[in-house]
Amino acid sequence: MTMVTTDASAQIPEAPPMVWVDGERQDSDGAHVSARDRGFSLGDAVFETMRHRGGKLFRYGAHRTRLFRSLATLDIPEPMQLDQWVESAARVAGVAFGAAHASLRVTVTRGVGPTGFAIPSGVRPTVIVVAAAMPCFAPAIYEHGLAAHVARGRRNERAMTAGLKVTDYAGAVLALLEAQRAGADEALFLDTLGRCSEAVASNLFAAIGGHLLTPPTSCGALPGITRAVVMELAPRLGLRVVEEPFDLGTLLEAKEAFLTSSLRGVVPLVKVSGQCLGSGVPGERTLRVMEAYAALVKQECGASSCSPC
Length: 309
What we know:
By secondary structure, this protein is of the alpha+beta class. It has helices at residues 38-41, 60-74, 82-97, 140-143, 170-181, 225-233, 248-252, 284-301; strands at residues 18-21, 24-26, 45-53, 56-57, 101-109, 126-133, 146-155, 186-191, 196-199, 203-208, 211-214, 241-243, 256-261, 265-272, 275-276. Strands 7, 8, 9, 10, 11, 12, 13, 14 and 15 form a 9-stranded mixed beta sheet that branches. A 6-stranded antiparallel beta sheet has the order 2-1-6-5-3-4. Strand 8 and strand 9 (196-199) form a beta hairpin. The relative contact order is 0.15.
């Protein structure tokens, strides 16, 4: 399979990114946060990335709930003006990007503090909002599907940050680099017990035994927003989703599979470690889920679900 470009850094060039720090608009090419900010120096921060169109954010409530749950776990105070800043950024981005799809990322760090790991008192969280053009996803990934490589590293389902959307993605960067060197588009993680967990920044679904299996969060999988949307849509499509651990061998026996994330939406997975899943093309259930997801995004935001180049 020819590898397709899915690099999230490839942006549609018409409109430059827009940046706000603590509600104040910043030069997109300028310095935005202190070098002493714990989000920068320690990765002591959480974030959410949302689909945006025309001033609307898809499933903002669900993203907000997950963000605040992560903040509570890390004992980072909730920024009181967060909703106001996000809503303001979404309105401005709606004017800048118009009918085009865009992304809006909200990062909340613990704030500027002294060196060391101990949590300092009196630190005020830093809130960074970035609105940018939608990453440029090639149409081929939706039409023909992705090939994945199983990463050497593992998702640690027992890690203290398991299930939290923290900013430490170095392991994911290395896994994707490894996958690309192996000629694949995406990396899949197993957990420490050898069970399927998730992809670099996507949840996994596999059609096995007449229903859709997805790894539970106990396997180190993030409770994805699009994952939850698919679980919501499935009964309407006559599909049953089961959260159940399964190993790589079971995945390789799947008739079809797909990945879900907020920006890519629903993307077919057709090959793993050089082996085709089913017939090696996007399956019928996958296509139905893709169509239903596109319709839901259009219903809630007035747009289709994906924005390929």
